UniProtKB/TrEMBL annotation:
SMART domains: AAA. PROSITE patterns: ABC_TRANSPORTER_1, ABC_TRANSPORTER_2. Residues 3-238 form the ABC transporter domain. It comes from Luteococcus japonicus LSP_Lj1. This is ABC-type quaternary amine transporter. InterPro entries: AAA+_ATPase, ABC_transporter-like_ATP-bd, ABC_transporter-like_CS, P-loop_NTPase. PANTHER family: OSMOPROTECTANT IMPORT ATP-BINDING PROTEIN OSMV. Its EC number is 7.6.2.9. Pfam families: ABC_tran. It comes from the Bacteria.
């Protein structure tokens, strides 16, 4: 299921022009990351896809169909949506939170709960947590429940709005690695919003770097952006102007190390002939 933004704009009632003439094709089965500073219009664009925000101009198409003419409630039930603070219902146990949308779609309780337990396995949550309340989980666990809930009706499209923004850096890195892994199997059409360029590089098949008003500074694969930043803004956002992505080889008593711009080891050189894992799937 591909998503197409066609010359969309959004002016809020108070006059704020959040997005102006934005166009983008979000390819099926890949992860597209919208990245940019606070207020550049990322959330506004994401919410246009499930009609939580209506464009004041332009169209959003899913599988070549204008969503403006579609029933908003039905549309939302077939699109997974993960928010920064997980948005779990505090008075429903974990298993029932995950089963929310299938239950609304008329799936029997027992069946919906059985599926919810399978999803807990998928997102790496112990089934023993099924009957806890959301408040009894850590932030990282709550986000996993949020992802499980978004996947519960088996949507083709997953919208993720800074889903890992509120967890500590270690858990965040763990969730990113896990996200990459499950996406290899699930192949959802993911539209992911973040202000963190490292997260965009870690997760995106395609990165769309935005400036104020939803203006596209550059879009492309992570490799394309890092290798050929379109202008100074992109280079600066990537940290290239400060050497932040520069890696160096350093000979030492333990052999050759790859070190980052601060001289910290980023890794070691792989034996010659070793291939890059997963390099076939990502650009
Ligand atoms: N309901 C609203 N009414 C008026 N202005 C709004 C509304 N929602 C967002 N805006 C404004 O529109 C612009 C874009 O906001 P948006 O939330 O889409 O940006 P963002 O890139 O997601 O920001 P952040 O990373 O801080 O979440 C901002 O200037 C914001 O203040």
């Amino acid at each position: 299921m591909g998503i197409e933004f066609e010359h969309v704009s959004k002016q809020y009632p108070d006059g704020t022009m959040a997005v102006e003439d934005f166009s983008l094709t979000v390819p099926t089965g890949r992860t597209t990351v919208l990245v940019g500073s606070s207020g550049c219009g990322k959330t506004t664009l994401l919410r246009m896809v499930n009609r939580m925000v209506a464009p004041t101009d332009g169209r959003v198409l899913i599988d070549d169909e204008d969503i403006a003419g579609q029933d908003a409630v039905k549309l939302r039930r077939r699109i997974g949506y993960v928010m920064q603070n997980s948005g779990l219902l505090p008075h429903r146990r974990v298993v029932d939170n995950i089963a929310t949308v299938p239950r609304l779609n008329g799936v029997a309780k027992r069946e919906a709960q059985a599926k919810a337990l399978e999803l807990m396995d998928l997102v790496g949550l112990d089934r023993a947590m099924a009957h806890r309340w959301p408040a009894q989980l850590s932030g990282g666990q709550q986000q996993r429940v949020g992802v499980a809930r978004a996947l519960a009706s088996d949507p083709n499209i997953l919208l993720m709005d800074e889903p890992f923004g509120a967890v500590d850096p270690l858990v965040r890195a763990e969730l990113q690695a896990w996200m990459r892994k499950i996406q290899q199997d699930l192949h959802k059409t993911v539209l992911f919003v973040t202000h963190d360029i490292a997260e965009a590089i870690a997760l995106g098949d395609q990165i769309v770097l935005l400036q104020k008003g939803g203006q596209v500074a550059q879009s492309g694969t992570p490799a394309e952006l890092v290798a050929n930043p379109a202008n100074d803004f992109v280079a600066s956002f990537l940290g290239l102007d400060r050497g932040e992505l520069d890696l160096h080889l350093q000979e030492g008593p333990h052999g050759t190390l790859v070190v980052d711009s601060l001289g910290r080891p980023a890794g070691r050189l792989a034996p010659s002939g070793a291939s890059v894992p997963g390099s076939g799937g990502r650009g």
